[in-house]
């Protein structure tokens, strides 16, 4: 899969996309990321990319002609979808990340401090994504978040041991608790069942604890998820534990 990123601050993309798993995926040719400077698509000798807003007011606006030229140059004949990162977008989640893995190419458009001319939104942007309800200085960090979340789902990017199919988020639940040695530290003990070697009991315990966390921290996730009979039973056990506590 290939990402083209359009930004006024290409240097922001240096570290995060070179390190660790994403860096390895790029080195192995599983993932391509090209970062383009919007300023290189300016027309004039001063390389102007923005202008004052019609109607007045604070801030500057990225110019429609410069952005259109940049988008068309970068996209070429590929018809790759253009994604604009902004707080006004649809909220990015694991389902959208999975959906995006079906695209061989994506163009990520980043504004920085300034908004883009609305005509770019209307005629070039295919999808507007927000990574959450807060305002940043630009779309660069959100673009890296999208690349990271999508790239780790691509075949071969994660090793077998850390396969994304094992993510509990993949099935709409928060993760279960994890432990490693020692089994007892200053009187803090690892749950007995995890030391038992009983795979079926361990699977069931993990599912229950994932459900518990989700129920306690993110009950909203349980409203949209299809629950199996086993999951419904475990949830009833959990609810019973807490109502027993209150009695
Ligand atoms: C700057 C500004 C200056 C004067 C008057 C109004 C103004 N609004 C903005 C502004 O919101 N700038 C944004 C910065 C323009 C688009 C790129 N920027 C951005 C993207 N901030 N936060 C995001 C973002 C993207 C995705 N998910 C969360 C946040």
Describe, in plain words, how this protein is organized in 3D.
This protein is of the alpha/beta class. 37% of the residues lie in helices and 17% in strands. The chain contains nine helices and ten strands. It has helices at 20-27, 64-75, 94-100, 118-123, 140-151, 192-195, 199-217, 219-224, 229-246, and strands at residues 2-7, 32-37, 50-51, 61-62, 82-91, 105-110, 115-116, 127-130, 184-185, 188-189. The strands form three sheets. The protein has a five-stranded parallel sheet with strand order 2-1-6-5-8. Strand 5 (82-91), helix 3 and strand 6 form a beta-alpha-beta unit. It starts with a strand and ends with a helix. The relative contact order is 0.12. The site of ligand 9WO has 16 residues, from strand 5.
> What is the string of helix and strand elements?
EHEEEHEHEEHEHEEHHHH
Question: What count of helical segments does DSSP give?
Answer: 9
**How many strand elements?**
10
Global morphology? elongated
Q: What's the CATH H-level homologous superfamily of the largest domain?
A: SPOUT methyltransferase, trefoil knot domain
Bound molecules: ligand 9WO
The rounded Rg comes to 23 Å
CATH T-level fold name of the largest domain? Alpha/beta knot
> Helix fraction?
25-40%
Q: Which residue ranges are poorly predicted, with pLDDT under 50 across at least 5 consecutive positions?
A: none
For the record, the count of structural domains works out to 2
CATH architecture assignment of the largest domain: 3-Layer(aba) Sandwich
| Strand line-up in the sheet with most strands | 2-1-6-5-8
How far apart are the termini?
A: 55 Å
Q: How would a textbook summarize the main sheet?
A: 5 strands, parallel
CATH class of the largest domain: Alpha Beta
Into which percentage range does the β-strand content fall?
Answer: 15-25%
Mean pLDDT: 95
Structural class: alpha/beta
């Amino acid at each position: 899969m290939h990402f083209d990123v359009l930004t006024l601050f290409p240097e922001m993309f240096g570290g995060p996309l070179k390190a660790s798993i994403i860096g390895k995926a790029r080195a192995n040719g599983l993932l391509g990321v090209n970062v383009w400077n919007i300023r290189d698509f300016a027309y004039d000798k001063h390389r102007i990319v923005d202008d004052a807003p019609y109607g007045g007011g604070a801030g500057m606006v990225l110019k429609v002609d410069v952005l259109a030229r940049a988008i068309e140059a970068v996209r070429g004949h590929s018809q790759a979808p253009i994604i604009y990162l902004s707080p006004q977008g649809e909220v990015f989640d694991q389902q959208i990340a999975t959906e995006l893995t079906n695209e061989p190419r994506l163009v990520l458009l980043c504004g920085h401090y300034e908004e883009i001319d609305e005509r770019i939104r209307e005629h070039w942007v295919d999808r507007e994504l927000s990574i959450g309800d807060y305002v940043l200085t630009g779309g660069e960090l959100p673009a890296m978040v999208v690349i990271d979340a999508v790239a780790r789902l691509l075949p071969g990017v994660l090793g077998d041991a850390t396969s994304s199919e094992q993510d509990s988020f993949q099935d709409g639940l928060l993760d279960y608790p994890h432990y490693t040695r020692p089994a007892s530290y200053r009187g803090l003990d690892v749950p007995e069942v995890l030391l038992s070697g009983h795979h079926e009991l361990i699977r069931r315990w993990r599912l229950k604890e994932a459900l518990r966390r989700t129920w306690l921290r993110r009950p909203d996730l349980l409203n949209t998820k299809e629950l199996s009979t086993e999951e419904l039973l475990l949830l009833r056990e959990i609810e019973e534990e807490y109502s027993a506590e209150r009695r």
